[in-house]
Design a protein that fits this description.
This protein has about 425 residues and is an alpha+beta fold. Helices cover about 40% and strands about 25% of the residues.
Length: about 425
Amino acid sequence: KLKGLVDAAGNYHLTLAENRILYNEIQDLKGNIRVYCRIRPFLPGQSKRQTTIEYIGENGELVVSNPLKQRTDAHRLFKFNKVFSPATNQEEVYLDTQPLIRSVLDGYNVCIFTYGQTGSGKTYTMSGPNVSSKEDWGVNYRALNDLFQTSQSRKSSIIYEVGVQMIEIYNEQMFFVSFDLHTLGIWSPSKPNGLAVPEASMHSVKSTTEVLELMNIGLRNRAVGSTALNERTSRSHSVLTVHVRGTEIKTNAVLHGSLHLVDLAGSERVDRSEATGDRLREAQHINKSLSALGDAIFALAQKNAHVPYRNSKLTQVLQSSLGGKAKTLMFVHLNPDVDSYSETISTLKFAQRFSGVELGAPQTHREGRDIKELMEQVTVFSHCPLFPEKSSLRKIRRLSVCGYLRVMAMVLSIV
């Protein structure tokens, strides 16, 4: 009888896993933003405190309550794609995101970012507490390591090139990490559709070791400060972007994918953080940019024609991930301490708005040989004046008649 119960329990968990896979596939088709919730364990000295986490379900259910207030409506139920308990380790968290990250090699754009109050464990999830220990690696390091290993296993059919950029948004100013000089350079210009980082800030990488070195530079340079809520807290939004270009050996087709790994600065209540002076100004900029992100998400959820991306540098950077055909995942982080109950509820409500957003089915970015040749031809025409000189005419004559007509059609459609 006991064996029968064990078998039944095993089948139940297997069914849950299969249902979750199917659910994720449906979400991919609809383009829903996936939301994972991770609950931080109590820190040393907090172990005897009461917790606001009452129940964690296997299907993404989460019940929170304030044990200091005994009311009938004190229990709040939330539902997400997945809820990670305080006992969940770094590897278990990454395994749930692995299929999403590997799709970058197939030409998809993927964005993973963290949200939560100051000190709730966002940087722990993304970077980890100790880079030298592989067990402690966060999503960033595991993702890059995984991409390199997978690209190596495909090298007989696809040749991959990988480039890395690191951006920091601090007090609504954009900085990029200059890996060669090991310093931060300021950068501020914007474009109508999002922000584009100078190509000079992209660094070609060929191994996980190189990536670890570059990311350590970025972490050392990142703006940090001390508040009453967290002795060492990030005061800036950090965006690590991985650009992947794969060339198929047989067809010469090219795949373009990108992975945005975003560690948002912590949201906080100014009255609790006891911030003054520079720390207060930083907190105001952080909260303003996070509010702008919430406004953009609300507009997307309502399917508004206008989405206010330009209200913040942060939303401009994330525009291609939120408004484009990308696969997007948000980690929402919670501090289980009773004193953080109001921030916990605010964070969970924000996350619920995200989970209802449909971005449209993600699209792969693949250029066949014909498209690649046409784009090169369009580049030739784009440099020709209205009345081409003889040198330009000679270039045009070298094009096939068919190619010329196709290019002209594309040029006219662009104009």
